[in-house]
Amino acid sequence: CVFKRFCYDSPHQEILMSDLQQLLRTAVHEAGHATVGLVLFPNRIVYASIVPQDELLGAVGHTLEWEEIMAASINEFIDHQAVVFAGRAAEEAGYNGDYRKSGLQNDETAAYEQFNAYWRSHREFEIDEVDIQNKALERARAILHREHQLFTAIMTRLLIVQSIGPEGLKLLRDKHLTTT
Question: Mean pLDDT, to the nearest integer, of 4-12?
Fold first, then answer.
């Protein structure tokens, strides 16, 4: 599974990595996903990248299985959603509340698809999508605030090497994580 960042400004627009602002914004966004993922799901985040592929500007890979997400308790499901919303939370924090909705469309689609599948398999609970998303976004914001050193280390490393594998993420987590 991958949290993907798309550029939807134009269907035929080429993504230019020479655009430093876009590169920085993508690093902020992907570092958000990676940071929250490393806090909530240690050893399950396997890479972070700002190397563009097709329409992707960046991605964070994980080893969480769909069935695992669907079997989660409500609080665990909110954790999964927090990882999805972490890119948005990081952009909001880094850009004074501004985030590019078009660039986050895939994250929001992933969150919506996860929620709908979860709701269908847990109809015995009263589940409110907006409430879940708000709680997930707040959880992501709180983790990014608390783990600002880890976030900054991941973002900086992404800007230098563009991709971080599992060993690199583990080293950064072990060095900069403030909570366990």
Answer: 42
**Helix spans in 41-128 (H):** 66-70, 74-94, 105-121
Q: Does pTM top 0.90 for this prediction? A: no
Burial class (CB in 10 A: 0-12, 13-18, 19+), 146: middle
Task: Give, for 158, the enclosing helix (H) or strand (E).
Answer: helix 148-161
CB 88 within 8 A of CB 107: yes
CA 50 to CA 29: how far, in whole Å?
A: 9
pLDDT in tens, 119-139: 777 666 677 778 888 999 999
Query: If we measure between CA atoms, which residue out of 64, 104, 63, 109 comes closest to residue 86?
Result: 104
**HEC readout, 7-20:** CCCCCCCCCCCCCH
d(CA 115, CA 91): 22
Give 108's contacts (C-beta < 8 A, 6+ positions apart). Answer: 101
Q: Are 158 and 31 in contact (CB under 8 A)?
A: yes
Instruction: Work out the mean pLDDT of the chain and round it to a whole number.
Output: 82
- Alpha-carbon distance of 55 to 61, in angstroms, equals 16
